[in-house]
Amino acid sequence: MAFLEIDHLRKSFGGNAVVSDFSLDVAKGEFLTFLGPSGCGKTTVLRMVAGFETASGGTIRIGGQDVTRLRANQRRVGMVFQSYALFPNLTVAENIGFGLKVAKCPAAEIRARVDDMLQLIKLPHLAGRMPRQLSGGQQQRVALARALANKPELLLLDEPLSALDAKIRVALREEMRQVQRDLGITSIFVTHDQEEALSISDRIVVMNEGRIEQIGTPFEIYNFPRTRFVASFVGTLNLLDGQVVDAAAGRFRIDGQEVVAAGRPDGAVAGEKRTLALRPEAISFRPGEPGTGNTLNATIEEVSFLGAVIRIRARLAEVTLSLDIFNNPHAPPPERGANVTLGFTRADLLVLEPSA
Amino acid sequence: MSRASSASRTGAWIAFILAAIYFLVPLFATVEFSMRMIQGQYSLEAYRVVLSDPNFQATFGYSALIAVLTIIAGIILVVPTAYWLQLRLPRLRPIVEFITLLPLIIPPIVIVFGYLRLFNSSSFLPLTASERTTDLLLVCAYVTLSLPYMYRAVDTGMRAIDIRTLTEAAESLGAGWPTILFKLIFPNLRQAILSGAFLTFAIAIGEFTMASLLDRPAFGPYLQLIGANRAYEPSALAIIAFIVTWACMGLIQLVARKPGGTP
Questions:
Q1: How many Å apart are CA A206 and CA A224, to the nearest integer?
Q2: Looking at this predicted complex, what is its ipTM?
Q3: DSSP string computed for A3-58
Q4: In B, what residues contact A, Cβ < 8 A?
Q5: DSSP character for A84?
Q6: Phi, psi of A11 (to 5 degrees)
Q7: Could you give the 3-state DSSP secondary structure of residue A145?
Q8: Out of B162, B174, B260, closest to residue A99 by CB
């Protein structure tokens, strides 16, 4: 049975639906990420799970218990905020021990638990400091320790890395993931950064306009996006407008040239438009194998040498494609303006669901 | 270029010196006059007379007590109100700001006449019937008078510390309202509350109109009485009141710089 069950959750502000019909099951110990652009409702869902917003409809169950109507301080849910939210009048140790003190734990127990937490975040020497004397990364680690000190059943992380600079962000996200694995605590992480989501999640929930677009592992989300939104938000896929030629055979026309996809456009009729997606690294300069591949004729428009990877922009007639090839010192990339043949397999050409 | 900047600097200095003269000459004249009680020599005789006057001690003590009560009542009224507004009812903020500014717009004489009409001894709530209840009325009146300063100080302090997220963080750690208010909000607003408190003290200690019309033995009416009947003592009293006010301002500065409060 799922540990966290969110069932038909809704939220509207005034007459404005911010979250509509959101259902999700999260397994115990899972690290789940809500990914989406700002305003997609991901933070609102998180805040409803935390108890900071009241749901307009639907239920939230944690460990089988219905918490939909419980107050935030009755839910045993730890939260880490983007702005750290450390209490400025308390020391690092007092911040971490705050929840235990509220729960009226004996002083000796609090001290032991705070020490454990300081070890966990590798900052035992900073116990007596005030929050303003710490760097952003240190503050966020203390906030994590504070959220974990009470042994919550669920850990919620609301864009915890957004306020940090890039280098610390990468180090800290790995550290957070490690701590989460060590403690086996069920966690929901909210971010708008697709790289962050892909790198640390067990599963990703891609959200748009208050709805779930797709749920899957990072591998599934990146390689097999189901909708145009997911494809455009995650990674750097080529999105192509294809005209259905023969739906049953998976044949499409792109910019006057015909291609075949392994997938089928469900319920489409000839002449209808569908979005096709093609990853830049799936394209090569060899013609596709007859029977399993596709071939397109194109003109090279731009070549950017990025080191290990060379990023090339090629034009069909109207449409441009971007493709990545690995650098090979023995095979220089084509010149700008050269006419080339592009090849890719039928399986790599994804047929996306029409947007709702 | 440098000539232009030195010319503008000279202009600034002239403006500064003129302003300083405008403020300092009357002050100096008052100090000088207050020290001429004994003819032919400078002395602190006027100060000695004033400070040893039992009425001075009684009225100053009374006003100080009323001021402290005003501060306590003001904090209890303003801090939870500002907190609640910020957190739950931000839409009402303009209305509350307007209300807190009213005491600056309506003259105290109008307010106190309103009180006398509402709370006189033959009214439904005869607060002026006894001395203690009149003191209560005076405290309420001073809370009103100091509202613009107290509210503004506390509100500014709250905006500086992201009260909403701190509240949510505390809630997610299991804390209830009393804990949040007394362990987090009050300590983090210490500086703002103290600024408001000192301003309130400075207002309440020398207030004349309300204390006089409610017939309370406060420092303001005493100042007026001495001023009307004596020659040198009023100047000494003015200087003492001036020092008390500046001591309050100085304390605000001191508290503002002390580590441990909000930066």
A1: 13
A2: 0.82
A3: SEEEEEEEEEETTEEEEEEEEEEE-TT-EEEEE--TTSSHHHHHHHHHTSS--SEE
A4: 161-162, 165-166, 168-176, 179, 184, 187-188, 190, 260, 262-263
A5: -
A6: -150, 125
A7: helix
A8: B174
Closest Cα partner for B138 from B77, B215, B76? Answer: B215
H or E element that contains A321: strand A320-326
DSSP H helices, B88-189, are 93-105, 108-119, 131-159, 163-172, 177-179, 186-188
pLDDT at B84 over 50: yes
Q: Alpha-carbon Rg of chain B, whole angstroms?
A: 23
Q: What is the pLDDT of residues B219-254, one digit of tens each?
A: 999 988 888 888 888 889 888 888 887 887 788 778
Q: List the single residue in B165, B173, B179 with the smallest CB-CB distance to A83.
A: B165
Q: What is the DSSP letter of A220?
A: H
The b/e string for B13-49 (b: 16+ C-beta within 10 A; e otherwise) is eeeeeeeeeeeeeeeeebeebbbbbeeeeeeebbbeb
Does the beta-carbon distance from B173 to A83 stay under 8 Å? no
Contact A87 B170 (CB under 8 A): yes
* Lowest-confidence region among A127-141, A189-203, A282-296: A282-296
Residue of B25, B28, B26, B30 whose CA lies nearest to B236:
B30
Q: Which two tokens stand for residue B153?
A: 């100080």
For residue A252, the distance in angstroms to the closest alpha carbon of chain B comes to: 52
Which of B165, B173, B185 is the best substitution to test chain A (most A C-beta atoms within 10 A)?
A: B173
Using the predicted structure, report yes or no on whether residue B261 has a pLDDT greater than 80: no
Average pLDDT over residues A158-164: 90
CA dihedral sign, ordered A192, A194, A198, A204: positive
Mean of per-residue pLDDT scores for chain A = 91
Contact A99 B173 (CB under 8 A): yes
Q: Token pair of B239, please?
A: 């200087």
- Does B52 or B260 have the greater pLDDT score? B52
Percent of chain A with pLDDT over 70: 99
